[in-house]
Structures are given as C-alpha cells and as structure tokens.
Amino acid sequence: MDMYARELLSKVKTQDNLPGKIQHLLIQEMPEKPFTASETAGQLGLSERSLYRELQQQGTSFRQLRDQALSQKARQLLSNQNVSIAEVAFLLGFSENAAFYRAFKRWTGRTPLDYRKSG
User: Fold this and answer.
1) pLDDT of 43-64, one tens digit each?
2) Among candidates 25, 69, 68, 65, which has minimal Cα distance to 44?
3) Helix H segments across the chain?
C-alpha cells in the first residue's frame, strides 16, 4: 500500500495552489484519515467555509478533488492483478463493494472489472 501511495504522490505535483495541496494531502493520507473537508481545512490552517469559498473561486470543489484522488488510487490498485476488486474497495475506505462499483463507474464510465480487463 505504501508503494502505491508513494507512486501516486510522485505523480502529483506539490503545487502552490489550494487544489494541488488538497490533492497531495488526500493521496498522502488515503485511507488512514477520513476524507472530510473540515479535516483537510484544519490541516491547511483554514476554516471549512474558507476552504469551500477558495475552491469555488478556482472552479472546483472538495468533492471533485476527493473523487479525483480516489479515482487515481483506484486505477493504480486495479492495475495490480494480485489485488482483488474487493480489496481495492476496502483499501479505499468503501463500506461495500457495490458502493465502490458505483463510484468507479461514475468516475470513469466503466466498472472496475471492465477497467481491469482493458489493461
């Protein structure tokens, strides 16, 4: 798991802008900490309201950034055939496989199994 996190972190540029910082935090802490806006805002020294306001000004939202981080991590884990889809769902913090399937399909337009088969 640590190997995947380091690989993803190396792909994400630590940017000076807020979305870049949030992406970095989410990937770094996935899934040990909850993916809440208030937790992330606190780590960045912002109020939750300020976080939402600044993200809105930059044309994004916390949910979009969280979903992007989860999607990146899911695709990375699915590329490893030794990790089952159920394990991927668990590692990403989903309570049920069905919830992971729905989220992955929303992110990519494909099911995790289709994604894995396509290589």
Assistant:
1) 889 999 999 999 999 999 999 9
2) 25
3) 2-11, 18-29, 37-43, 48-57, 62-78, 85-91, 97-108, 112-118
| 58 burial type by CB count under 10 A (0-12 exposed, 13-18 middle, 19+ buried) | exposed
Structure token digits, residue 103: 């989220």
Q: What is the largest CA-CA distance in the chain?
A: 43
Could you tell me the two tokens for 117? 């088969």
* Phi, psi angle pair for 53, to nearest 5°: -65, -45
Q: Which structural domains are found in the chain, ordered by start? A: 2-118 (1.10.10.60)
For residue 45, give the amino acid letter: G
| pTM (two decimals) | 0.76
